[in-house]
Amino acid sequence: MRCxxxxxxxxxxxxxxxxxxxxxTAESSxxxxxxxxxxxxxxxxxxxxxxxxxxDVLILSAATLIxxxxxxxxxxxxxxxxxxxxxxxxxxxxxxxxWTVWGxxxxxxxxxFALFEISSWxxxxxxxxxxxxxxxMQGRTISFARATARFFGKIxxxxxxxxxxxxxxFTAKKQGLHDMLADxxxxxxx
Length: 190
Fold this sequence. Notes:
- Helices cover about 55% and strands about 5% of the residues.
- With about 190 residues, the protein is mostly helical.
């Protein structure tokens, strides 16, 4: 529920706002939401978030391809790279190219997610298309540090055989492990 005074988020059934201490009631919050034109929200579920992530991956993949094309001549010259012979490892230029693209992709992905989630959108383009946005536990815009923790927390969500992601479908606030680690919520406009 949202506080009528300061707009911060509070747990359902809370007696007072955790941010400003104002008294909360479900009825006044509902009336304020419709009278003030506030956006009603709900927790974003697994499938919506997966769809938003797929859109973001398509955007990031296109960006990676755009970066790879002009970088290739710097590593391989003007002739196209030759695949290694059977039993031969990648040539040093190819290895350096792969590591460079991989490093730029990680940094680019981190900045993409973190900067979009701390922006006024509070969402990546994929989330925005689906009406999703990221907040802290009080419904405020997250900080860059929290967005960074959330991004790198996805490593743990993946390392647990993706259980950290599947948790979204089974937790009360639809949080994955990375959301819990960063104290974040992903909400959808209803």
